[in-house]
Amino acid sequence: MLVVDRYVGVDPRFQSNARKARTRRSERRSPERAGTLADQRDDIPDLENPLFDDSQPIEGTVLTANPVGYGNPLPPLDLEPLEEIFPDTPLPPFVWEQGLAEAEPSTVRIGGEKEAATALAGDAALTEDVFENEVITGDEAVAGKSMPAEGEASLGNAMTVGNDAFSRNEPALSGNASLAPDLRAERETLVDLLAEYDLTLRSLHRQGGRLLAETDRGPLRVEFLEGEKALQRGRNITAALKHLREKGFTQCPEPRVSKYGERVIPWGDRAYYLYNKLPGRSAKLDASRDLQEAGRSLALLHRGGRGFQPVEPSVAAPLDIPGQFAWGRQVAADWLAMVGRQRFFSDSDHLLRENLPKLTERGEKGFAWMEAAYQEKRKQTEQEGALCHGDYGAASLLKTQRTFWVDRFNHCRCDIAVTELAQFISNIVRSSRDGWKEAIYVVEGYESVEKLTEADWRILLGCLIIPFDLFEHLEGKIRTEPANTIELIPDRKLQDQGFRRTRRTIETCNRAYAAAYRLAAQAELALPI
């Protein structure tokens, strides 16, 4: 038997007859919305509308339009022609071929993550409070995005436009940009400076305290030195870069030569040198492969720097480790004498008095263990010549798919190569408790190019053992604390800040010693401690 369902749609057994609750109560409604829609319609008069009435009007009757606001179009505005309102102002010509290049001067600036565009006219200065990067344009500026910053990838980019069009044939706006005061002065200098290279300045960017100039032949990094011996230092830097590239280390800047044959140009109290923007992005030394590659790049730099002699030896003085250790020893003695005259001691002082004898004894033994090897290596370096970067680390490395590029040579000097390796390892091991593992990766990468001798190992391990961080901390306490007494600080948080700084300093010294102990085991050497 065929059963036919008589219900179509929803089964009434599953329907709910309960009414849904209102979202708003009538007494909470605003007065203008208190009535229903039907009540509001009753208030509107039912007037005839001839526009939508199909019936023909009766002869002799006059149709009147409904008031404005009841569905009728607005009445036409009785406007005067523009020629009568502004008789002295001619109308702008309407020409299809006219581009944006003939428009009024303006500047477009785009913040990276905020995606905000602002057009400013006149000479109003733009500050860093509005945009993260500062950008200026010249009279022949072009439209184009700013190059990404080296090491500041999270900063917002900026874009400036000017008279001409970019190579992509994009329209541009004309006129000078509204500049920050310091960049406006830099722009005026660089316009004349680039003329000696037959280059034209398009825009100028400030990225992390450094200058990046967009020219008609690509982006250039602008480096300058200040001081009385700025020109001599600049000549040493350019000579070092030239020496490295001639010896096969090409992962470094190549200074441009002006049309007069100069690599360093003195300008006022500064000395400028320019080079092409290096490829790559900011390096993060958090993987074993990156640490090995960083050590390998440092070894290649030291191998390429063999035989380098500075043009101006007076401004390229090497590090004086014996002098620094003698200074640290005197600082420790002065602090002990100062504390001995005090009547009260803070938690920081108690911690220092407990650990200072052990750390200073460790430093004395480590320096005596490395002193002979250091003096011998010093004489060899002065005779044969060598080159150190001076500030080698993650901030001076740019990572590409294959290798690292080395930048920021403003502190390069003629010095023992292994002392720079020790300084690089010391900066790495201070950041974490397992820094000794990272130190081993760096040494493995370095020894893949240059094998360390026993004298090199002694200098490397001795520099890690000497507590230079402790000496700097003691000098800071001598400058800030009184000589005869100590102030009782009632706030416990302030006392804890000094205690934490002291404890952190002692911990960094112990981390460096732990790294020296692990590296000594790898080199099969016995430490004197």
TrEMBL record:
Q: Which organism encodes this protein?
A: Heliomicrobium undosum
From the Swiss-Prot or TrEMBL record, give the protein name. Answer: Phosphotransferase
Where is the stretch described as Disordered? Answer: 17-56
Where is the chain membrane-spanning? Answer: none
Question: GO MF terms on file?
Answer: transferase activity
Signal peptide boundaries: none
Which InterPro entries does the record associate with it?
Aminoglycoside_PTrfase, CotS-like, Kinase-like_dom_sf
**Name of a matching Pfam family:** APH
**What's in the keyword line of the UniProt record?**
Transferase
SUPFAM superfamilies, per database record: Protein kinase-like (PK-like) (SSF56112)
Domain Aminoglycoside phosphotransferase positions = 214-431
Q: Record's Gene Ontology CC terms?
A: endospore-forming forespore
